[in-house]
Structure to design on (241 residues):
C-alpha cells in the first residue's frame, strides 16, 4: 500500500516539529526515517498512524485521504521501542489484544481468536511460549510478541519506532534481518524510525534523512553513504572511514 504525505506541518506551541513534509512511500517499500534525536521522526510516524494529527497537510493510503481517520480505522501495525506489552497478560493474551480492539461488528469469535493467535505466534517463531508472561521472555522475544500483536489486525502498513533500541547488538542484528524477511514475505509497506545509521543503511530500500523537522535527503542507502547531504550522516560516514 502506498503512502502519500503532502505538506504535513506540526507545531507544539511555538515550536515547529514538522515543517511542510512531502513524502511518497512506494507500495511494498521498506523505508527508514533516519535523523538525530528531536528531528521529528516519531511525530511523523504518529501522524501516519493517526495517533497524532497534523496542523495542515494530508495523509493518503493508496490515494485515499485518511487524514481525519482515527488510529483504529487506519489498519496500521505499530511497534514501539519499549515493547509496551501488558505485564499481567500472557503472551497469547497480549497478541489477542490486537484482535479484540477491532470494531465490534467484525470482531472474531473466541475460537477464531485462538487459532489466529497460534498462527501469529508461529509467524514470529514463538509458538511454544504463548502461556508465558512478558517478564519470562528475553528482550528479543518480547519485541517479537509486540510485532505479532501489531500484525494481528492484518495491517498492510507497519510502522516501527526504534523497535530494537533497547536490545544488544547481536540480537538487534539478527532481529532486523528477520524483520526485513517478514516484511518481504507479507508484502507490507514499512516505515522504520532509527537514529542508527548502520541499521538504516543495511535494512532499507530508501532512507529519508530528517533534521529539524525537515527532510534533508531521500535516497537509496548506497547514495546516502556516498553522498551524505546531512551533517548527521556525514559525521557517521567520516567516522567509519
Ligand atoms: P525524534 O523522533 O526525531 O526524536 P520527535 O518527533 O519525538 O523527534 O520530536 C520532535 C520535536 O518535537 C522534539 O523537539 C520534541 O521535544 C517535540 N515534541 C514531540 N512531541 C511533543 C509534544 N507532545 N509536546 C511538545 N513537544 C513535543
Amino acid at each position: 500500500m502506498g503512502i502519500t504525505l503532502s505538506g504535513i506541518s506540526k507545531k507544539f506551541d511555538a515550536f515547529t516539529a514538522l515543517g511542510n513534509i512531502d513524502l511518497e512511500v512506494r507500495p511494498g517499500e521498506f523505508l527508514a526515517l533516519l535523523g538525530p534525536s528531536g528531528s521529528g521522526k516519531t511525530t511523523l510516524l504518529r501522524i501516519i498512524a493517526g495517533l497524532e494529527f497534523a496542523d495542515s497537510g494530508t495523509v493518503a493510503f493508496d490515494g485515499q485521504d485518511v487524514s481525519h481517520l482515527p488510529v483504529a480505522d487506519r489498519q496500521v501495525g505499530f511497534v514501539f521501542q519499549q515493547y509496551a506489552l501488558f505485564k499481567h497478560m500472557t503472551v497469547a493474551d497480549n497478541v489477542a489484544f490486537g484482535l479484540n480492539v477491532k470494531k465490534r461488528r467484525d470482531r472474531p469469535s473466541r475460537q477464531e481468536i485462538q487459532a489466529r493467535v497460534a498462527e501469529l505466534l508461529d509467524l514470529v517463531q514463538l509458538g511454544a511460549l504463548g502461556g508465558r508472561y512478558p517478564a519470562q521472555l528475553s528482550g528479543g522475544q518480547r519485541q517479537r510478541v509486540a510485532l505479532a500483536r501489531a500484525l494481528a489486525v492484518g495491517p498492510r502498513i507497519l510502522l516501527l519506532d526504534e523497535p530494537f533500541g533497547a536490545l544488544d547488538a547481536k540480537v538487534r542484528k539478527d532481529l532486523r534481518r528477520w524483520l526485513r524477511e517478514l516484511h518481504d514475505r507479507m508484502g507490507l509497506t514499512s516505515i522504520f524510525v532509527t537514529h542508527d545509521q548502520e541499521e538504516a543503511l543495511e535494512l532499507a530500500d530508501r532512507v529519508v534523512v530528517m533534521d529539524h523537522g525537515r527532510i534533508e535527503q531521500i535516497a537509496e542507502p548506497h547514495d546516502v553513504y556516498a553522498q551524505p547531504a546531512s551533517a548527521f550522516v556525514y559525521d557517521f560516514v567520516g567516522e567509519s572511514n
Summary: Residues 46 and 52 are 5 Å apart (CA to CA).
